[in-house]
Amino acid sequence: MAYVVTENCIKCKYQDCVEVCPVDCFYEGENFLVINPDECIDCGVCEPECPAEAIFPDSDDAAAAWAQANRDYAGIWPNITRKGEAPADADAWKGKPGKADLLSPAPGKGTA
Ligand code: SF4
Ligand code: SF4
């Protein structure tokens, strides 16, 4: 079991989730975060912290389409352990449908 970041994080990336994760298993893309399913201990602490309601357990139907992307990008994006600045237009993108095509495969900066 693991938790999964889904579509509504795209271009929101508030990063409240990374602050609470006890095992630092978030990885940062240019406009999206993912959870490494091999590191997540399934504690569920991050789920209610996400302002965009983008995090689901992998047993939830909402997670199915995003589980593989979390696994794949966690292997190539840098680890993020501290909250950085959210995008200036994050609130404008919050809750918008149809963001999947906007997912950037580029890595984020991560936490040095
Ligand atoms: S808190 Fe939610 S929207 Fe923000 S980075 Fe984490 S998963 Fe994405
Ligand atoms: S469920 Fe727990 S361990 Fe997994 S990503 Fe969220 S806070 Fe981290």
From TrEMBL:
UniProt cross-references to InterPro entries, sorted A to Z: 4Fe4S_Fe-S-bd, 4Fe4S_Fe_S_CS, 7Fe_ferredoxin, Fd_C, FdxA, RnfB_subfamily
Keyword Cell membrane annotated: no
Keyword Repeat tagged: yes
Gene3D superfamilies noted in UniProt: 3.30.70.20
Sequence ranges assigned to domain 4Fe-4S ferredoxin-type in this UniProt record: 1-30, 31-60
Top-level taxonomic group: Bacteria
Keywords: 3Fe-4S, 4Fe-4S, Electron transport, Iron, Iron-sulfur, Metal-binding, Repeat, Transport
Cofactors named for this entry: [4Fe-4S] cluster; [3Fe-4S] cluster
Region described as Disordered: 87-112
Function: Ferredoxins are iron-sulfur proteins that transfer electrons in a wide variety of metabolic reactions.
NCBIfam families hit by this protein: FdxA_Protbact
Entry protein name: Ferredoxin
Top-level taxonomy: Bacteria, Pseudomonadati, Pseudomonadota, Alphaproteobacteria, Rhodospirillales
